[in-house]
Amino acid sequence: HKMRANGGERVFAVMGKIRRHKGEVRFSVLGKNIRVKAATLVINGHRESDCGGPEPTPTPVPPTASITGAAPSEAITASTGIEIAFAADQPSVNFSCSLDSAPFTTCLSPIIYASLDNGTHSFRVKATNSHGLESPIVSRNWTVDTVAPSVTIADVATPTNLTSFLIPFTSDDVGTYSCVLDGGDPYPCSTPVELLGLGEGDHSLSITATDSLGNRGVSAHVQWQIDLTPPTTTITESHPSASPSTSETRQFVFNASESSSFQCSLDAVAFSDCSSPMLLENLSEGWHRFEIRAIDSTGNVGPVAAATWESDFTAPTLTLGSTVPAAGNTNASNFNVEFASSESSTFLCRLDDSNEETCTSPFAGPFAADGVHSVSIVAVDLAGLRSQAQSVSWSVDSSSPVISFASILPAASARLNTDDMEFVIQTSEPVTLMASFDGGPSEPIAASVLYSNLSEGQHRLSVTGTDSFGNTLNTLVHDFFVDRTVPIVQLAAEITGGTAQTVNSFTFSANEDATFECELDGAGFGGCSGGAMISGLAEGAHEYRVRATDGAGNVSAIASTTWSVDHTAPTTSVTSTQLNATSYRFDFASSETNSTFVCSFDNSPETPCTSPLTMNSLSSGSHSLIVFAVDAIGNRDLAGAQIAVQVEEPVQTFLNNPGIILTNQKQITFTFTSNLANATFLCSLDGAAPTACTSPKSYTNLADGPHTFSVRARSASGVIDPNPKTHSWSVDSASPLILTATTTATTTTITAVWTTNEPATAQVRWGLGGLTNVTAETNFATSHSVVLNGLNPNTVYTIQVTGRDGAGNVYQGPVQSIRTRFF
Questions:
Q1: What is the predicted pLDDT for the residue at 769?
Q2: Cα(first)–Cα(last) distance of the chain, in Å?
Q3: CA 634, CA 629: separation in Å to the nearest integer?
Q4: Please, how many CA atoms are within 13 Å of residue 814, restricted to the half-sphere of its CB?
Q5: Which residues pair with 195 in a beta bridge?
Q6: Burial annotation 233-245 (CB, 10 A radius, 16+ → b, else e)
């Protein structure tokens, strides 16, 4: 108790003040990346001598501050962080620091600054002792430079055929430089960089600058290409490409193995600049040579590419030799023609209108048919020039002429109903005609002959003749039968009169071979056979008609049959009238007169019924009647008319009890149902007028106090359940209040005693430095007492009393610090 703190008050007195004011003594260890795992505080002091009088009180003096070190220590640095240590000539002083003119703030030595910007920085520090006296400000200035130097390299012309270079470069800062050529090892260098004896290909130079602080800049690069290989030229197209050629122009398309310019020469003339495509015009007849060479961008001249060809503008002359048979009329079946050309040529021959074909002398072959024939021959030289065509013509006739009927009127049919027949004969050349009719003698006739007043029955005409050379003609024969009697038709229908069917079948025939035409409802006659079935008939009257035409064209009288179709079912309507609680009368009708009805009540089998229909003593629940109308033809209303009635049972209400009597919640939800599926509901809260509601029904923002909910079901007919269902409960959202509270301690126990304004449970939360433990919860009461046992002597504990009321509202007392007794 005789030790002193900071050379002033005794340690015992200082600790007493700290305890009295419920303060703390904290010790910290400062340093970069330090984590304290365990520590021990040792206080060393001395026993004062008994001098017999008080010690003199020294006169306070201001402390002196000093900066004892910095890392890094250089005045200019590339580091963006710094650690500065400082001290004072007096113990237990407080330091205040400022960086770059910022306000002074409390600090400890050493102080670390990080992420500093580039530029000049200033650190200031001062010390203040326990008497409030400040030292003079001391400072340290330094500069942060993290900017790397940059390099600018002069461009190199590319591509080039130079193999040695002087490449200058500049930098925005003084430093050292490192060069890398073509991705090799770096080496020290200076401007200009000299490069000697480089080979062909791509090259690159990278230069990096490093300033005096070690900031290394981004490398600068320059690239170029050395080209020592001359380009090669390729002729890719020649128009025309043939040799010899008849064109006075020729166009060449060419390219080089690399980007180049070109020089051209025609027929050994000096080379001159040219480009692709190159068009040569006004070429003379004879042989030509075209040469091209490429010059790349570095001046390398490539080898010559050349093309040669012959220009030919003179056509050959064709001469005919022996020709068999001689030109003119002939009955020969083959031909043979000899020919020759004035120069080397190929020959094209054509017979009549056929395509030209390659041929050689002599050109020979058969005549395909009688008539006029010709042979045409052309010579084509190597340049494709054609001679003037030479031709030979013949007229060939080796067959008899042919006759045929040009027309037979009124028709060429085998059976007709005509009185007269006219025949017109066509021939391939002038001839003499002879005819025999119905087996009579042959007589000369003209090209057109008429036979009149023909009798009914079979007839035959036979015609023949000769041409002017005596060639016998073919014989024409025509047989026909004259019939002027009309056929008779018989028609029968499967359905006549009225029907609901949309189909009908018909059969018909004639008394002789004939074709038939049929017509439905005046739509027009069309071909038909001996029977027909018509489907998809519309409602209404219908008529089917048939007529026959025999082989001679005679048309019969029309046979017909009629009927009507009704396939529309009637529609049914039904209404109901309630006679009493369990009886209903049903009235129903049809959209068509003379209809009958069938009924089914509650899905029972259908039975015939008449309107009105009365149903008595019905059970509670839903009932339905369906009625179908059937018209006189038998069409039935497939949908029918259906009506439902409801015989209700007494309405009842069922409330699902939520089981809540006391709660701190200001909201509640009720669910309810009825024995009737289509029932609605009326709800009331705390005696208010009932209003329509649906399940679930929720209430919010309820006031504290008792509440009562009531619900009643209402049937579809408006009957309300006379027995409402109710539920009562209370809302308490207020937490209990602590009225009185005391706390006492012994060396090993702490006792908390308190009272609340309403019955509530009691608990104590406690611990060393935090509320980490909790006692068991007591029963509901207004007076509470909890004892904490087994505690350490002379130890500060943190405690807090708490609990809840019957509604679940929690109360909490203030957090207190209580020290157990030392003895």
A1: 82
A2: 19
A3: 10
A4: 8
A5: 165
A6: bebeebeeeebbb
